[in-house]
Write a structure and sequence with these properties.
The protein is built from 13 helices and eleven strands. By secondary structure, the protein is of the alpha/beta class. Strands 1-9-8-5-4-2-3 form a seven-stranded mixed β-sheet, with helices on both faces. The chain has a two-stranded antiparallel sheet with strand order 6-7. Helix 1 crosses helix 9 and helix 5 runs parallel beside helix 7.
Length: 384
């Protein structure tokens, strides 16, 4: 049985008529850049994320970039993040002239380890600490980072908090006081991606920045349009970070179904746990649900020593998989100038060598989930 890692055609089949209708509306309006559709999406996403404001932008990468630019981060500055993430997290930091200050991840959640963040900050000399301007935690795979203690460190050192929530729209965390917050609502900026493979995906690139500050919202709007206010008058240098109306119209349709799709992913994750337990596959480590609402952008298992063999076997059986991510950023060729060694972040290195993402999209059938687990069982049975 073939089980693709993701099947967007199955999703599109349920939305086709709605999508064609709203795109036709945009065609008739001939208003393709920003406009009422983008504003409508911004309002809906802000409400969904529990934020006051949202600004539609051209991609998740540009959401990070415009947030850093708006925060005034640039040459000589340091931004704290993790090396176990997609390239855009650190690529955006270096593009504004700043440099990443890496902190290793938690072994079970793959998110920034708050204790290592605190110890890293405490170990800096006064001069280097003064260069740190922001913390950029990543809500990886659909689960919020442990933001409570991260926020405490940010406040202690007067740092901007920029949430890389590209994989985590709708994910939630509960703080010690019992208050639950959604990804993107806890820092000065929340950055989202609408890349087609995301839980809420466009028909191309798109992104969003959320904030609870009216001042930051107004500055983001200016930065999005080349820094102009009014038109053709530039006090700051911005960029072309505008969201297309076509993408906004499609995302408005899809947003209505997001909670339904998230529930489907969560049900599939629950089924996987049951199937792995019944199969007795104790050598496979399953995702940990530490926070209140894991939205499962990915379902990432861990298998020490034989991950690549398993992936090759599953792919030969028609079962799609992916490695997120095979090489941590601190050892990528383009970041060698930072001077990090592989052993500096052992949890990130270990995760890169042992993790594997399985199909988790909501349209999966029970028999497909069973086939995935059965094939993993077959692989492990002949290699024990």
């Amino acid at each position: 049985m073939k089980v693709p890692l993701l099947d967007l055609r199955a999703q599109y089949a349920t939305l086709k008529e709605e999508v064609l209708a709203v795109t036709q509306e945009v065609y008739e309006s001939q208003q393709f850049i920003l406009g009422p559709k983008v504003k409508e999406l911004e309002d809906k996403v802000a409400e969904y994320c529990g934020c006051s404001y949202a600004v539609g932008v051209s991609s998740g990468t540009d959401a990070l970039l415009i947030s850093l630019m708006t925060a005034g981060i640039g040459s000589g500055d340091l931004v704290v993040t993790t090396p176990f993430t997609f390239f855009a997290t650190v690529g955006s930091i270096t593009r504004v002239g700043a440099a990443p200050l890496f902190v290793d991840i938690d072994r079970t959640t793959y998110n920034m380890d708050p204790s290592k963040l605190a110890s890293t900050m405490a170990g800096l000399g006064a001069a280097e600490r003064s260069r740190v301007k922001a913390i950029m935690p990543v809500h990886l795979f659909g689960q919020c980072a442990d933001v409570g203690p991260i926020l405490e460190t940010a406040k202690k050192h007067n740092l901007v908090l920029i949430e890389d929530a590209a994989q985590a729209i709708g994910a939630e965390i509960t703080f010690r006081d019992g208050v639950s917050r959604r990804a993107g609502s806890m820092g000065e900026y929340g950055c989202f991606s609408f890349f087609p493979s995301k839980n809420l995906g466009a028909f191309g690139d798109g992104g969003m920045v959320t904030t609870n500050s009216k001042d930051l919202y107004e500055r983001l709007i200016i930065m999005r349009g080349h820094g102009a206010k009014p038109k053709y008058y530039h006090r700051v240098i911005g960029g072309n970070f505008r969201l297309d109306a076509l993408q906004a119209a499609i995302l408005i349709v899809k947003l209505k179904y997001l909670d339904q799709w998230t529930a489907g992913r969560q049900e599939n994750a629950k089924a996987y746990r049951e199937l792995f337990q019944n199969a007795g596959l104790t050598e496979v480590t399953l995702p940990v649900e530490k926070e209140k609402r894991h939205i499962y952008n990915q379902f990432v298992i861990r298998l020490k020593g034989r991950r690549d063999e398993l992936r090759e076997f599953l792919n030969a059986q028609g079962i799609g998989t992916e490695v997120y991510y095979p090489l941590p950023l601190h050892v990528q060729d383009c970041f060698k100038y930072l001077g990090y060694r592989p052993e500096d972040f052992p949890e990130s290195v270990n995760a890169a060598a042992t993790t594997l993402a399985l199909p988790i999209y909501p349209e999966l059938k029970r028999e497909q989930l069973e086939a995935v687990v059965q094939k993993i069982k077959e692989f492990l049975a002949v290699r024990r």
